[in-house]
Design goal:
Length: 118
């Protein structure tokens, strides 16, 4: 996909992306918001594109026999923090975070336009 955009894909460890962008080694990166925030990508870029083809999937996969063989207290931790209820809770948190970021971004845009006299 990147080649179709006349970009040259280059693998850079996530922890090195901000430094690589600030030094001009790379011109951009594909990140979700949470990872970009964690790795400080926002400190070295001003522009964000939100393509609709990127999704994040988190999964915990475990052999059933191994799961059943865990101590009951450990099995309870997994059962309480994974599955449909935990997925819904994580989805709500993700939507809430994205909405908050969108509101901050819109506020910055309005402040910038006001400062520019628009």
């Amino acid at each position: 996909m990147l080649r179709e955009l006349d970009a040259v894909p280059l693998q850079v460890p996530q922890g090195n992306v901000s430094d690589s962008m600030s030094k001009g080694v790379i011109d951009g990166a594909i990140f979700n918001y949470e990872a970009a925030e964690s790795f400080g990508v926002g400190t070295v870029t001003r522009h964000v594109l939100e393509p609709s083809f990127i999704t994040g999937t988190l999964i915990l996969a475990m052999n059933k026999a191994r799961h059943d063989g865990l101590a009951p207290d450990l099995r309870a931790i997994i059962d309480e923090t994974c599955g449909p209820i935990a997925a819904e809770k994580a989805g709500r948190a993700l939507r809430c975070g994205r909405n908050a970021r969108a509101e901050r971004h819109a506020g910055r845009r309005r402040a910038h336009q006001h400062a520019a006299g628009r």
